């Protein structure tokens, strides 16, 4: 899996004003929900635009090509983090799984995921 913790801190926000093109253009992820557009973006960008944001999250990217074909990977990762009491928001896209964890749990989550990766490698 080779989990890698990204340096940036991210937040989740709802963007109601589509004129905030800088926010939209610099978002890591955009998802259109029935209530409006939700974005994942760097915390400093949310602050710069005065957006109401979630608590801060760090991003751990699993450096294994997984995408949609890794049937149990999401369940294993989410289950292990849940068992450790770590909130996780998993975003799976074409090539990798990306896990957002609370900023204050990021290092612990990274170590846990490295342990899973090591056990999988040696079994």
Describe the structure.
The protein has 123 residues and is of the alpha+beta class. The protein has two domains: 3-7 and 56-121, VC0802-like (2-Layer Sandwich); 10-48, no CATH class. 31% of the residues lie in helices and 33% in strands. It is built from four helices and six strands, in the order E-H-E-E-H-E-H-E-E-H. The protein has a six-stranded antiparallel sheet with strand order 2-3-1-4-6-5. The longest helix has 16 residues, at 106-121. The radius of gyration is 15 Å and the shape is elongated.
Record keyword descriptors for this entry.
elongated, 4 helices, 2 domains, alpha+beta, 123 residues, VC0802-like, six-stranded antiparallel sheet
The number of domains is: 2
CATH class of the largest domain: Alpha Beta
CATH superfamily of the largest domain: VC0802-like
Oligomer: single chain
Q: Looking across the biggest beta sheet, what order are the strands in? A: 2-3-1-4-6-5
Q: Please count the helical segments.
A: 4
Beta percentage is 25-35%
Give the CATH architecture of the largest domain.
2-Layer Sandwich
- Could you describe the largest sheet, including whether it forms a barrel? 6 strands, antiparallel
Q: For the CA atoms, what is the radius of gyration?
A: 15 Å
* Strands, count: 6
Shape: elongated
**Distance N terminus to C terminus?**
14 Å
Uncertain stretches of 5 or more adjacent residues = none
N to C succession of SSEs: EHEEHEHEEH
The helical percent reads 25-40%
The mean pLDDT is: 87
CATH topology of the largest domain: the name is VC0802-like
Protein name: ACT domain-containing protein
Domain DUF2241: 1-58
Pfam family, one: ACT_3
Organism: Microbulbifer spongiae
């Amino acid at each position: 899996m080779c989990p890698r913790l990204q340096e940036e801190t991210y937040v989740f926000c709802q963007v109601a004003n589509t004129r905030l093109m800088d926010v939209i253009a610099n978002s890591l992820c955009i998802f259109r929900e029935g209530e409006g557009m939700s974005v994942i973006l760097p915390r400093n960008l949310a602050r710069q635009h005065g957006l109401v944001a979630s608590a801060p999250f760090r991003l751990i990217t699993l450096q294994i090509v997984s995408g949609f074909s890794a049937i149990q990977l999401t369940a294993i990762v989410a289950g292990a983090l849940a068992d450790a009491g770590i909130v996780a928001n998993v975003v799976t896209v074409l090539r990798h799984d990306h896990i957002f964890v609370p900023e204050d749990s990021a290092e612990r989550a990274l170590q846990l995921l490295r342990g899973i990766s090591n056990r999988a490698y040696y079994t």
